[in-house]
Amino acid sequence: xxxxxxxxxxxxxxxxxxxxxxxxxxxxxxxxxxxxxxxxxxxxxxxxxxxxxxxxxxxxxxxxxxxxxxxxxxxxxxxxxxxxxxxxxxxxxxxxxxxxxxxxxxxxxxxxxxxxxxxxxxxxxxxxxxxxxxxxxxxxxxxxxxxxxxxxxxxxxxxxxxxxxxxx
Length: 168
Fold this sequence. Notes:
By secondary structure, the chain is an alpha+beta fold. Helices cover 30% and strands 23% of the residues. The chain has a 6-stranded mixed β-sheet with strand order 1-2-3-6-4-5. A hairpin with a 2-residue loop joins strand 1 and strand 2 (14-20). The protein is globular.
């Protein structure tokens, strides 16, 4: 589990776990001050101003050992599209993680292909592909115990991490 208190907020339908960008290394760092929902929401709600935190796309689900995004993920995907459209100058890393089932090679490949699939979906919805950079982490940086199904589900995740703005 991350050594920070979990806070969530809803941005146009996205339920997001807010994690300060200074906390990019999920394991082994000292905990930053907890993020409050109000401060994160105000950062996200300012037009053109990129969010100050990672955005966990909670509810993105892939078919087991596949790259196909389940239809149940559509509301979360649509909310991510809305967020990116509201912030047209924001570039994001699309970070994908797996639980340790299946081995390192398989998980890294799945992570790479799932990230590419996420970007393809967002691009198909009008988000310029040059605004997104995939990063595949495979079975690393766990946020929960892999000893339970719930923990493994939490470790299977997609995060959007703002990293810059596009200068017009």
